[in-house]
Amino acid sequence: MFARYLHARVKSFGYAFNGLKVLLLTQPHAQLHALSSIAVLALGKILHLRRWEWVAILLCIAMVWMAEALNTALEFLADEVSLEKRDRIGKAKDIAAGGVLITALISIAVAVLIFANHLTPYFRV
Questions:
Q1: pLDDT tens, 78-97?
Q2: Could you say which DSSP state residue 48 is in?
Q3: Per-residue pLDDT, 99
Q4: How many distinct structural domains can be found in the chain?
Q5: pTM over 0.85
Q6: Contact predicate 110/57, CB 8 Å
């Protein structure tokens, strides 16, 4: 019984990793998020961020990825329902995309607030 339960849990992780693979291979914005995430993580490492700064950065990265994943899932489902232009499906897609935009803009603001403290000494004349 436990083996069957464990097998189901492992299998569910496989589905999740497959979803991430689909997200990265099919969505240009997810690819941009990946590059941005790597750049922000590298900059944070170089600048020796404090623990609370890492927490804020990691939460922002997670929020953007989650929003992008949910937006992509909604788009796939909506396209499965109908590929023709339908007003409510279009609005749903636009709202989901707006959610990604909000999380990305707030994440950029958080990054600017955190990294500005660390970078301003390098730009003082």
A1: 999 998 999 999 999 999 99
A2: T
A3: 98
A4: 1
A5: yes
A6: yes
